[in-house]
Amino acid sequence: MFKGFYTAASGMIAQQRRTEILTNNMSNVNTPGYKADQTSMRAFPEMLLKRIDETSIPVKNKFTLPFEPVVGTLNTGIYLQEAIPNFRQGDIRETGLSTDLALQGESVFFTVQNTVNETRYTRNGNFTLDPEGYLTTASGLYVQDIEGERIQLTTDQFKVDGEGRVTENGADIGQIGIAYAEDPNALIKEGDGLYRIDGPALPTAFDAEGAVFFVQQSFLEGSTTDTARTMTDMLTAYRAFEANQKVLMAYDRSMEKAANEIGRVM
Questions:
Q1: Where are the beta strands (DSSP E) in 54-187?
Q2: How far apart are CA 121 and CA 61, in angstroms?
């Protein structure tokens, strides 16, 4: 079998996966707080092929060789090693809605409570009030305060200062929970703008050394997806996939000829 089959096939799989990630980035270009994934390609290690326990050439008059013949090296292609979110600060835009909150500062996240009462982290501050007055995400997850409790309000006429303190009619309601990730790349994407971490929960940003942030009410952070670059990368990935596809087709034709023509002559 032609060794290039493996190289071409692995290239097609890697470029297909990369295209899927880029497409997902493009579809979230207007999602508040979305962090675009960046891909990393890596080559598989090369393999050295040798004829084991065979010292003769497989022809009619077998020639004996004084050593084990080396067939050659096999490049096993590439693979998509990982997809890393781009945690840089997104653009801040005004919405005029009091329930919208934007975080300025990297490595800090709002804390929310998922459906099984576990803490999750998000940069999407597109919040709303449910029928009971609790501050929730657009998908209905409860926003937590610094004590891990839900935040309940009576109206949307509340104020949030730069440190996340919530006041309503002059009364102190609480302080929005904000966590600090010293290494944001340790976070794991769960979808719907949520992140989790394996191990201990992230510390609060109010006490963490090096945490610098500011909360802006009636603003939202935009996506970090660069539309122009993403489109260019998608075209590049498509052309690379197409090139590998043509190589694979060429090998297929060679295999067909070897099986149908050369075999008949022999």
A1: 70-74, 78-85, 92-94, 101-104, 108-113, 119-122, 128-129, 135-136, 142-143, 158-160, 165-168, 171-175, 178-180
A2: 72
Question: Is there a single domain that holds both residue 115 and residue 185?
Answer: yes
Which residues of the chain fall short of a pLDDT of 70?
1-3, 44-76, 262-266
SS3 category, 209? coil
Domain assignment of residue 187, given as a range: 92-221
The pTM is what? Answer: 0.79
Q: How many CB atoms lie within 10 A of CB 260?
A: 9
Rg (CA), the chain: 28
Alpha carbons within 13 A on the beta-carbon side of 163: 7
The whole-number pLDDT of residue 4 equals 72
At 95, give phi and psi (nearest 5°): -115, -25
* Cα dihedral value 250, 254, 255, 261, nearest 10: 150
